[in-house]
From TrEMBL:
GO MF term list: methionine-oxo-acid transaminase activity
Signal peptide boundaries: none
NCBIfam families on file: PRK09082.1 (NF006569), PRK12414.1 (NF009079)
Sorted UniProt keywords: Aminotransferase, Pyridoxal phosphate, Transferase
Cofactor: pyridoxal 5'-phosphate
Originating species: Paraburkholderia dipogonis
One Pfam family hit: Aminotran_1_2
Annotated protein name in UniProt: Methionine aminotransferase
Amino acid sequence: MQSAFSIRSKLTSGISIYAVIGQLAAEHKAINLWQGAPNFLPDQSLIDSATRAMKEGFNQYAPMAGIPALRQLLAEKIAKLYGARYDPDQEVTVTAGGVEAFYASITALVHPGDEVVFFEPAFECYEPIVRLQGATPVPIKIPLDTLKIDWDEVAAAITPRTRMLIINTPHNPTGAILEKCDIDRLIAVTRNTNIVVLSDEVYEHMVYDGMTHHSMSRYPELAERSVVVHSLGKTYHVTGWRVGYCVAPAGIMEQIRKVHQYLVFSAPAPMQVALAAALENSESYFALAEFYQRKRDILLSGMAESRLDIKPCSSGFFMLARFNDFSNSSDRDFVFDLLRRMRVGTIPLSSFYGDGSDTGMIRISFCKDNDTLREGGRALANWRP
Ligand code: PMP
C-alpha cells in the first residue's frame, strides 16, 4: 500500500539481530544457541494451575498493581532473600515482563535532557527506551578481558544531569556478576546525588560456582534510590507469559505506576494466579542455580576441543567466546558462517553496543535442553576456519 505520509523515525536502530538470526536459523534448521529463552517445558503443575485459573474465571483485567496474593508473596520472598521490607500495597508492582518494568520506570523518572549511564555490552532495550524520552544514553564499556567495571570511569561520567544509572547483575551477555567491592563503589558514586539506580536482576537465581547475587535490595543505602526489576518468566521457564515485577520505595513506585497503568494497565491475570501458587514453594527458585550450572557445564564439555576462546561465566544464561585468533571475519559474518556451515545459531557481540563495536566475539546461550546443548557444543567444537 502506498502512503502519502512522511514518517520521521524516533529510533534509528534497524531490525533486531534476533529477527535476522531467527529467520536464518529457521532456513538452515540450525541448533538454537542464540536465544535467551528455554526450549523445554515448564513444570506441569504450573501449566495446570494456569489452566485451572482460566477455567475458574481469571480472564479479565487483574488489579493494576498485580494480584494482591502474588505481591504479598513477592514481598516475603525479597524479605527472606535480601532482608528488605517492601510494602506489597505500595512498593511492589507486577509488570508485563521485566521489559515493561524498564519502560515504565525510565518513562516515569527520566526527563528530556537527562543523562542515563549504563554499561556495554548491554541488553538491547535500555538505550532505545532512554532515547524515546528525549534523554541522552551514556554508555560505559566493560573491559572484556576482566569483565570488571571501571568505577573511576563511572565517577567521571556522572554529571549534574545524570538522572539514572542502569545496572544489570547477573549480566547479559557476559555472564559476569557484581561483587561486594562493586556495590561499595556504586554506593560511593551515587551518594549525595539524585540518581536513581535501575537494577536489572532478572537472572538473580542463576548464579554458579558458589557465587552470591548482590541485589540492590540487600543494601539499604542503595534500596532507597533503586528500582529493582525481576522476571517470573525467567525464573519459571515461561518467558512467553510476560510476567515480571519491580520493587521500589513508595515515592518512586507511585510515579512508575502512573505509567504502567497507561502502558498495559495490568499483567496477564491467569498467569499471575499460577505463579503465586508456584511461589509458595521456595525450592522452585532455589534449585535453579544447580539446574543451569549443569547446563552450562554440559555445553562447556561439548566445546572442550573447540578453537573458540570461551570466557569464564559464573551466572545467567549466556557465555562469550572469542574467535578472532582464527578468523578475520566480522562477528556478524562469523555468526552467519556458523549458521550456514555448522548449523548452529549464536549472536554477534557487536549487537550489544550502540556503536556496533566489533570485538571478535559471539554470545552463546545455554538455557536449552541437554540434547540441544550436546549437539550445539559438538557443532561449535567442529568449526574450522
Ligand atoms: N533483562 C535481561 C538482562 C534479559 O536478558 C532479558 C531477556 N532476555 C530481560 C531483561 C527480559 O525479561 P522479561 O522476559 O521478563 O521481559
